[in-house]
Design brief:
The mean pLDDT is 92. It is elongated and about 65 Å long. By secondary structure, it is mainly alpha-helical. The protein has helices spanning 2-41, 48-70, 85-117, 129-133, 135-153.
Length: 164
């Protein structure tokens, strides 16, 4: 069962990496086009900043989740490294469960935020604001899933070797 779960989470992580890169490129193209239009044509685009903001929100939430899976977040482990290996693992599990709890909270709060935003649209493009806010519960759920994977099964195989 854990092998199947790992394979599915590996595939999900691969898809997330592609989506993150695609959204980051779209954001950069949008902002670059805005700069060119202002400097060369002295004309501002009405939609580029809004598109970039939407891409940024999604990129950050998805990248945070992938960062949790790969354990590339900032951490201080000076004291943990001094503990016996069994206690080190216990601390790692406790930290992962704390991160999972945070992910569950972000999911819960994000869903409420999305529901509250139903019916509103963005000013320039006119897309539903709920689409932008949906990045929070999506990212929160992924954070919780990846942190629980770490707590129950240990570091992901794709994690750097020093990411305990």
């Amino acid at each position: 069962m854990s092998d199947l779960a790992r394979r599915l989470l590996d595939q999900l992580t691969g898809v997330l990496r592609v989506v993150i890169v695609a959204l980051a490129v779209l954001m950069l193209v949008s902002l670059s086009l805005q700069v060119v239009m202002r400097l060369v044509f002295n004309e501002a685009l009405s939609w580029s900043e809004e598109l970039a903001l939407g891409c940024f929100g999604w990129v950050m939430m998805l990248a945070i989740a992938v960062g949790v899976r790969d354990a590339i977040h900032v951490r201080m482990d000076l004291l943990v490294d001094q503990l016996p290996p069994s206690l080190q693992r216990a601390v790692e599990v406790l930290v992962s469960l704390g991160i999972a709890g945070l992910g569950v909270f972000v999911t819960w709060a994000g869903v409420r935020y999305v529901v509250d935003s139903f019916g509103t649209t963005s000013a320039a493009i006119g897309y539903p604001i709920a689409f932008l806010y949906a990045s929070a519960p999506t990212g929160g759920a992924l954070i919780a899933i990846f942190a629980l994977e770490r707590a129950l099964m240990g570091p992901a195989p794709s994690a750097p070797p020093d990411a305990k």
